């Protein structure tokens, strides 16, 4: 592997512990102005000090992130379908390698839809993107998107992750599942997990991150469970503590609890209130 490729991967997955905290804010590429991500700039800015990399499209990068940002960019380069369209799996590569280089992307991300109507198309998209990335030393993150007709179990996810690795992806993003260690075992590249839909309980989201890294994940690429929380900074700090500092869920939740106390105006007012009654 070339120096440039190794260097870029080391920006995404920390060599110190082999783990990563990636923040996903690319949802708009097929979901439009996703709830609580309507103003991407406002969402992203306070989270930047707590993440290792940012997964984003070129449009939102250019419009909503200051170019002096020090966080490496994982550029979403697949798309072409929408939530109201005929089939989400009908994706192609939507950003050229030249434009990815122009925005100084550290890694490129593309979805694969194994078992879907457009399986062949999305798998060959990945293979071609790997060829392009290899020319310039840019790693590829394959995202194992799961169609409605597929089950998110370890057999399916292991199949999708292994295929991604076989086609040359350098990192794969998938979902956590029972027997997750079997997904990791059958996949020779680092596996990171998506958070999925916002869970009603923050503790469950922290438990998900904990379970994933304790069953072999190289970290997280989470979105909604962080920025749809009432306390996104607290959530990202708590997730980071689990991924990089080996915190237990309860300890990480304490970080979130502290953040809630700091940021809840009523608490501040109560603490400083002068009793006038
Ligand atoms: C989905 O295709 C998007 O690429 C998201 O980046 C991914 O689902 C991770 O975000 P979340 O944790 O919200 O599921």
What number is the mean pLDDT? 94
Give the name of the CATH architecture: Alpha-Beta Barrel
Number of domains: 1
State the CATH topology: TIM Barrel
List the helices and strands and how they pair.
Elements: H1 3-12, E1 20-24, H2 28-31, H3 40-44, E2 53-56, H4 58-64, E3 73-76, E4 78-79, E5 92-93, H5 97-102, E6 107-112, H6 119-136, E7 140-144, H7 154-166, E8 171-174, H8 180-185, E9 191-194, H9 202-214, E10 219-222, H10 224-227, H11 232-245, H12 249-263, H13 265-272
Please characterize this protein's 3D structure.
Helix 8 links the parallel strand 8 (171-174) and strand 9 (191-194). This protein has 13 helices and ten strands. It has one domain (3-229): Aldolase class I (TIM Barrel, Alpha-Beta Barrel). With 277 residues, it is α/β, with parallel strands linked by helices. The site of ribose-5-phosphate has 14 residues, from strand 10 and helix 10.
Gist?
This protein has 277 residues and is α/β, with parallel strands linked by helices. The protein has an 8-stranded parallel barrel, surrounded by 6 helices.
